Each structure stands twice: as structure tokens, then as C-alpha cells.
Amino acid sequence: MSTYVFFPEGAFGPTNNCVGIGRVLLERGERVVFVVEESFAGTLEAQGFEEALMRLKPAAAVEEAPGQFWKDFVRDTSPEFRKPTIDQLETFVLPVWQELVDGSRHVDERLVEIFGELEPDVIVQDNVVGFPAVLASGWPWVRIVSCNPLELKDPSQPPVFSGYPTADRAGWHEFRERYRELHEPLQVEFSAFCEERGAPPLPELEFVHSSPWLNLYLYPAEADYERSRPLGECWHRLDSCVRSVDEPFEPLPGDGALVYVSLGSLGSADVELLNRLVAALAETPHRYVVSKGPQHESIELAPNMTGAEFLPQPAILPHTDLVITHGGNNTVTEAIHFGKPMVVLPLFWDQYDNAQRIEEVGFGVRLPTYEFEDAQLHEAIEGLLSTDHSRLQAASTRLQARPGTIRAADLIQTVGGASR
């Protein structure tokens, strides 16, 4: 029996992706341990995994919900999401990188302790920022990229976080130069910290290393980008990575299409936006399943809706006709996995890139999140419901026939076998 340590970012999307892979390894008789923030304590254990707890910042004065820091952060900074993406580089993206870098600094000693105690055969990291303790541990490690592939930069593709179209290069250079101007000082400082802690320096303008053993990125081939620079033999694409869930789901009875609505665990913290969306959807003849998120008590659903704070998304999607989403990578890839068209309302980070790409490949419609008119939303819904989605269905059939969780587990076990 080998020991596989998963270290996902403290958000539900990356964690759930790792859960799907980890469950396959558990079923194969391997030992699987999740390194998680203290606010997640018990949530992975309840799913059959061991937990190793850590903190990315000093302890809070009150008990925290899972991922509470990022929920509060998004809630407090949501006015920034109304700005153009190039303006968000300074007011949102840079502060996020700063928080992530600070977290890596704070937790490094604790990670050294954890890896020393567990002696893992493989460490599997799904984070957008590097952690020197992973590289300095001496153990083989795997990088998972559960964000839009534009994070794996290529000069022939739009700059990450921009939401710019692939067919129009206007603004690409300006965006990249502004990103460099704002982020290079922090990146250089963080690279020096990585070296101090026994890890190699970071690649230019990157906040995370690629693994010399195995790197996995999560995006269906049907929506992926054509690269001018190959990623290399250590890179593999996971077309989808959908965890299995045990919770049953009974669709809301009634007429009309069934639509799943989720702005993600972070995006749904914007109560004003979610309530506005609920009001607009109440005017349609369809049925809705709404993921209400951390501020669920402040969300009042209409008669044609049902919902809860947490919902078993993989159990719901097969029953739906359409998905309304913020464009988080997890929801986007799962929607394609189940062949569901999307209305995408991006808020931050790579959600703009996903929204743009989904519209470009014909799998959905991108709308301006804070400026859409109710009529625009209604038109998008009716248009997608009446459109032939044979390409999307073909993608779904292919993805479901080759589960990414199994392929990822196979590749990770290959690294584990080589380390023994």
C-alpha cells in the first residue's frame, strides 16, 4: 500500500476534483491523506480519507466554515468585479496573489512537518501558487491545474484572466504588460523565498513550478486551445474529472425545462447579484435548482425554484437541460461532461476566460454579469434550449466513456510505483 497525499487549494472546486481521484485510489487499496485547512476539518474524513490539518494564516478568533476566508474576501471585494478585467489586475488579481503568497509563507514549516510524518510516496498538489515544502521534501510530486488552460501561458493565446477573444489580438500586449508591471515585484520576492526554503527559483513571472514527474490539466479537448508551444512529455490533459456522489436528487415537478443555477461557493457570497438573478428567472416558465451558497439565509427563492446552501452538483447535472454558472472551471468541465449548455456570468479570475471560450466553441452564451438585462437572460435561455447541441452531446459521450478520475489515478500510481 502506497501513501498518496493530496494538497488542494482551500476551495470546493479543486478539492472536489481531488476527491474524485482520491476515491479511485482508495478503492484500489491505497492510503489517501488530504492536507486541508482547519476550516475543512472533518469534511474529507467523512468521505473516507485521512486528514492532515494546517493553516494558511493565523487562527481566527471565531470558528470558521470551510473556506471561510475566501468567501469573506469575495464578499468584501465584489464591487471590483464590475470593473474591466485589465483594471481588476490591480484591485483583485494582485491582492489574491498576495494572499496566496502570504499563505505559502505561513504554512511552509507546518507542511515540512506533515510530509515528514506521512512519508508520502507521492504528493499531489492542486494550487495556483507554489509551496516550497513540496519541492524540498524530496518526494515525487504531481501538479494538477484545475483552472482554465490559459494559465499555461502561450503567446498565440489570449492573456490569462483577460476574457479576451482568441480571434482578436487587440489589447493582448497591453494586458500582458500591465500584468507584468503589477506582479513582477511580488513574483521575484516569492521566488527568493522559495530558494531560501530549499526549492528551485520560480520560472519567469510564474508563482508555481511544474513537476518533473507529472502534470495534469483539466479541460475537455473539445474546448481546449491550440498551442504554439507544446507543454512537454510530463503534461497530460484530463478531459474531465467528475467525482461520484451518493446523495439522491429528485427534480422539481412541473412543466418547463430544468435549469441548474450556481455561482460557486465564492460567487454566491454576492447576495445582491444572486437575488437579482433569482428575480429575473422567476419570470420564466422553467424550473430551477439553485445553489444558494454561504449566504443562503439571505436568498429567497421563487415558487418555480428549489435549492440549498450545498447541492450534490454531479447528481443534479444529468437531469438538467441547461446550466447558469459563474464559469468556474469545475462547473464548466462538469457541464460539458454531462452535455449541458451554459449561460456564463463570470465574476473573477479565470471565469472570464472560461465564459469567452464556452461562447467561442458554441457550448453556451457569455453575458455581462452585472449589466445584463432580464430580456437578454431570457433570450439566452430560450436560444440555448432550442439549439441543436449535437457537438456538445458527442463530447459528453466521449468524456463519460473515459473517466478522468481513473486516468488520473493510473498516471499518479505510475509516479508512485517509480518512487518505490
Structural class of the helix and strand makeup? alpha/beta
What's the end-to-end separation, in Å?
11 Å
Determine the number of helices (DSSP H or I, runs of at least 4 residues). Answer: 13
Question: What Rg do the Cα atoms give?
Answer: 21 Å
Output mean pLDDT: 90
Give a quick account of the main beta sheet: strands, pairing sense, barrel closure: 7 strands, parallel
Fraction of residues in H or I helices: 40-55%
User: What would you call the shape?
Assistant: globular
Pick out the low-confidence regions: none
Describe the strand arrangement of the main beta sheet, using strand numbers: 3-2-1-4-5-6-7
Secondary-structure element order, as H and E?
Answer: EHEEHHEHEHEEEHHEEHEHEHEHHH
* Number of E-type strands: 13
Q: Beta-sheet strand percentage?
A: 5-15%
Brief write-up:
The protein is an alpha/beta fold. Helices cover 40% and strands 15% of the residues. It is built from 13 helices and 13 strands.
Task: Based on the model shown, name its key terms.
420 residues; alpha/beta; 13 helices
Q: Mind explaining what this structure looks like?
A:
The protein is an alpha/beta fold. It contains 13 helices and 13 strands. Strand 4, helix 4 and strand 5 (141-145) form a beta-alpha-beta unit. Helix 1 packs across helix 13 and helix 3 packs parallel to helix 5 (172-196). The mean pLDDT is 90.
Question: Strands, helices and their partners?
Answer:
Elements: E1 3-8, H1 12-27, E2 31-37, E3 50-54, H2 68-77, H3 85-118, E4 122-126, H4 132-136, E5 141-145, H5 172-196, E6 214-218, E7 235-238, E8 258-262, H6 264-267, H7 271-281, E9 287-291, E10 305-308, H8 313-316, E11 322-325, H9 329-337, E12 342-344, H10 351-360, E13 364-366, H11 374-385, H12 390-401, H13 404-419
Parallel strand pairs: 1-2, 1-4, 2-3, 4-5, 5-6, 6-7, 8-9, 8-11, 9-10, 11-12, 12-13
